[in-house]
Specification:
With 131 residues, this protein is an alpha+beta fold. It is 28% helix and 32% strand. α1 runs antiparallel to α2 (67-78) and α1 (45-62) runs parallel beside α3.
């Protein structure tokens, strides 16, 4: 039995319906005129907070002059005392990401050759581990 009621669908595109989204979490940094996602979306807010806190802890090691401030910001993010921080001219924010499943008349859409994964070179958690 399928549920085809309209309240379960967000919209249609070329015969495909998008099912209601589910929420994931990440961190973003304001750069220039836009925001950059710092690592792939994670299933929990706690995981995203941990990822951003670890990035700041890595900055503390590499930048001793700012070390105490980076560590304080890491603690604030991880303890949920802050969703956004401004530090050293940068703006960083924990964000919600709504992901969707594309539904066709045949069921969920399969992966496509043109699908892209999150670029490893943009994953700030990876840069922290390498640097």
């Amino acid at each position: 039995m399928t549920n085809s009621s309209n309240h379960d669908r967000v919209g249609r595109r070329g015969g495909a319906a998008r099912t209601s989204p589910y929420t994931a979490y990440a961190a973003m940094a304001l750069e220039g005129r836009g925001w950059r996602q710092m690592f792939p979306a994670l299933p929990t807010e706690k995981g995203a907070r941990h990822g951003l806190a670890e990035i700041f802890r890595g900055h503390a090691v590499r930048n001793p002059a700012w070390g105490d401030r980076y560590l304080q910001v890491a603690d604030d993010i991880q303890s949920e005392a802050a969703d956004q921080v401004i530090l050293g001219g940068g703006v960083y924010r924990i964000v919600r990401i709504e992901q969707t499943v594309v539904m066709t008349e045949y069921g969920p859409e399969s992966p496509k050759p043109t699908d892209r994964e999150f670029p490893a070179e943009l994953d700030d958690r990876r840069r922290r581990a390498e640097g």
